[in-house]
Specification:
2 helices; about 40% strand; 8-stranded antiparallel β-sheet; mainly beta
Amino acid sequence: MNLNKKTIFAGLLLSLSTFAIAQRPAKFTAAEQQQISISTPGLFARGNSFTIDFDGLKDTDYAFPLPVGKATVAKNQALEIVTTKGDAVKAMFDGAVRLSRKTPQYGNMVIVRHDNGLETAYANNAQNLVKVGDRVKAGQTLAIVGGSADKYSCLFAILVNGGWINPSIIVDPNSHRLRGGKVLFKKLGRHVDVSMVKEDKPDNTAEPILAKADKTGGKSLDPDDVPSDPFGNGGSIRLNLDDISKSHWAYPLPGSHVISPYGGRRNHAGVDVKTCPNDKIVAAFDGVVTKSSPFSGYGNCVVIRHAYGFETLYSHQSKNLVKVGQKVKAGQVIGLTGRTGRATTEHLHFEVKFRGHRLNPAVLFNHVAKRLQDVTLVLTKGGGVTSRKN
């Protein structure tokens, strides 16, 4: 195919103009740049309500504003997140900076208008690092936390159409993870009502999720709840992670953030997550402790055996709090974060194995939302694991 110079030049100009549009900063009125609470144009243009499906978010779509901070609800309309001097304040979702200035009531403040329709506010900053119109990604640094020698903290709020809502409706202050599910935002006069959307799940009793271990209904990974040889003569088992009861699983280090993922160039055998020294590490599932001792570069190490051939490993603890042979429940404290073994900072190194084969922990856990993945796993006796989105 022959293209003349005019056609090529026109195509180049079109590409450059498209790139320029994509990179153009967001525009906000003078009032939007000054007022903290102001209605969002077009938010209810298509009706008096909209929904956000928080279960559909990817790991990179969400970040807690101060991952290692301690959060408490203040006056049912904000979170006070206490942390240490110099900590970086992060954007919760993708969006554009609508306000970035010093306010009389809240000091240095940043407000981000997100692509999902919400706005988030970050106040009491020592220094704002973004300006109005900047596009930001979830987890991007917006500011440096402010405070005094006694306390450094960020006042964090979620706004809908200018109104402040209780952030704990959307995010758990203790675990820092999104509560998940679909949330309905309905305009009622000058106010917006916020509620969870209840969805009826299909009855799966006619087709057990666990083909050869249907007595458990998939509600626990306790070895005592599953036959010793659940695979029988072979075949596979379907394990829907949604069917594991909330009382039978826990994220191993609540409130943490990933500092080193699984795999990569150095073939990392697990995932490293961090909060603060001597934080409480909990068992991911019900099981039996098979190791609790120093172990080479792992330092103080705990291994727990679960059903179907799953094992979880926790290492670098400053102290192990369980013994070999001890039965543990999901969420039970098994150790404290440390830097024993080959570690340069206090953190938890967390591994998952299935029938002797290493498995990316992200197959089981959403590290950002701190919850189980919404998937069904197909398990084989030979150690194969296939993940299928529910």
